[in-house]
Specification:
With about 350 residues, the chain is an alpha/beta fold. It is about 15% helix and about 30% strand. Strands 1, 2, 5, 6, 7, 9, 10, 11, 12 and 13 form a ten-stranded mixed beta sheet that branches. Bound molecules: guanosine-5'-triphosphate. Guanosine-5'-triphosphate binds next to strand 2 and helix 3.
């Protein structure tokens, strides 16, 4: 089994030489914006279409040559390890580091320092993406950077911080979130970092890498590169659902078979002949859908039961939700095992 490290990290330890490509994935957050889906299940193992979300991350990292993934955990690490184990045969090895309390994005890196090599990727653990990490790694080496940020172009950056570059790709500034800023580049939460940067992170408290460390490196080794591909932070209800349709309809490259109508019905679900499913629906394993029920634009995680004639639209159901016959559920996100009456 993979090791779970609970000891506090020692400081000043020499990094391991980069004999294999390594990625540290930050998965210690509580996923509060996705509650109630994440109340009793950490975001990385929330099912997305037909597999736990983290499986997409593993495939993406493996496709760029990553051989070891260190998961920086905090919330419900045992569940994560029970589902993901130490990785699949032939895939990257998984290793777990557990913070005693949330240390923030930089604190988590510092805490994991003894496991980390002299250069490695860091990824936020809640992005669905196929961005070109190989290009980012090559760029980092070419610029002899200390940190290289993977950037993603957006039309409306109001929810994110904007990153501005000079013509060499050196980061000139970060601009905080504001409305009406126009198109720009945002940090995709994917970067290459040299181990020596960890010495800049203050110890013993929560530290944000975006707010406290990156600004120190402007004009001093901080670069950014706009990457090709798809990127979405899946941390809100709407984006979680959109990500399911993007997977099914083929806007992001994953191992899931493409279904243009955005419908996935688990082979272990029992859907009555008279039910209407889709466009856009995920029906998880163990679900039962009664006759004449209509399900559109919705995700039903495992073991939900939908009574006959019920209408479900724009909703996400945690495992074990039961909907009475003739009920209508529109634009709702429901917690585990709830019962919805007509
Ligand atoms: P919200 O509570 O909804 O904001 O979600 P979150 O905290 O899970 O996600 P957020 O977008 O704030 O964080 C980005 C990524 O960093 C997520 O993958 C989190 O799991 C991870 N993360 C955030 N804070 C910590 C931390 O203190 N420690 C570790 N190890 N990971 C963290």
């Amino acid at each position: 089994r993979a090791s779970i490290t609970k000891a506090s990290a020692s400081r000043g330890q020499a990094p391991r030489p980069s004999d294999e490509m390594q990625a540290l994935v930050l998965v210690g957050g509580f996923g509060t914006r996705l509650q109630p889906l994440t109340t009793d299940r950490p975001k990385p193992i929330l099912e997305m279409v037909d597999r736990p979300f983290f499986a997409y991350m593993i495939d993406w990292l493996a496709s760029h040559g990553v051989e070891e993934i260190v998961l920086a955990c905090g919330f419900l690490p045992d569940q994560m390890q029970a589902v993901l184990g130490d990785g699949s045969p032939g895939g990257p090895k998984l290793r777990y580091v557990v913070e005693p309390e949330p240390l923030g994005t930089a604190g988590a890196i510092k805490f994991a320092a003894p496991c980390l090599q002299d250069r490695f990727f860091v990824l936020n653990g809640d992005s669905l993406t196929d961005l070109d990490l190989t290009a980012l790694w090559d760029f980092h080496l070419d610029r002899e950077a200390r940190v290289s940020l993977g950037l993603y172009p957006v039309d409306d950056p109001s929810e994110f911080g904007l990153v501005e570059l000079d013509e060499t790709g050196s980061v000139r500034s970060f601009t905080e979130k504001r409305d009406g800023a126009g198109p720009g580049l945002i940090s995709a939460g994917a970067y290459v970092i040299d181990h020596e940067v960890i010495d800049l992170i203050p110890g013993g408290r929560k530290v944000s890498i975006e707010h406290e460390v990156f600004p120190l490196l402007v004009d001093d080794g901080l670069y950014g590169l706009a990457l090709d591909g798809y990127w979405k932070d899946i941390g809100t209800h709407d984006r979680y659902r959109e990500a399911c349709w993007d997977i099914l309809e083929g806007r992001v490259s994953t191992g899931v078979e493409i279904h243009r109508d955005g419908v996935f019905i688990s082979p272990e679900a029992d859907v009555s002949d008279g039910a209407e499913i889709g466009p856009r629906a995920v029906i998880g394993p163990g679900c039962r859908v009664g006759t004449r029920a209509r399900i559109t634009d919705s995700v039903l995680l495992q073991g939900c039961e939908i009574g006959e004639n019920a209408v479900i639209d724009g909703s996400i159901f945690s495992p074990g939700v039961i909907v009475a016959k003739n009920a209508a559920v529109v634009n709702r996100v429901i917690g585990s095992n709830e019962f919805i009456d007509a």
